[in-house]
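Work Package 4 report. The design task specified in the project plan requires that, given a folded chain encoded as structure tokens, an amino acid be chosen for each position. We show below one input record used in the internal validation round.
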């Protein structure tokens, strides 16, 4: 069974890979806009739909990751009795 740290690294790698795929797809769309045949237009439309879905998934993954980070920081603040704003900020960066 994966431990939480390995799981987090896997999720971060997935997010990074998804960002790269999105960037490459956007570049492909930009570089093929001069082709106007039906075949190209159809392929570009399919790619644009897939790109939109991937972008939405990436946003969802990033929101979930941010939520986990906020909750982990909140838990660490409570466990360590970080009462001041300075202590909470310092904990967030450790």
């Amino acid at each position: 069974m994966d431990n939480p740290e390995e799981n987090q690294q896997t999720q971060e790698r997935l997010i990074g890979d998804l960002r790269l795929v999105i960037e490459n797809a956007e570049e492909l769309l930009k570089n093929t806009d001069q082709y106007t045949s039906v075949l190209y237009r159809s392929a570009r439309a399919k790619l644009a739909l897939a790109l939109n879905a991937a972008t939405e998934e990436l946003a969802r993954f990033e929101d979930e990751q941010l939520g986990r980070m906020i909750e982990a920081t909140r838990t660490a603040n409570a466990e360590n009795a970080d009462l001041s704003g300075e202590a909470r900020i310092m904990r967030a960066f450790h």
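The radius of gyration is 20 Å. Validation will be extended to a larger panel in the next phase.
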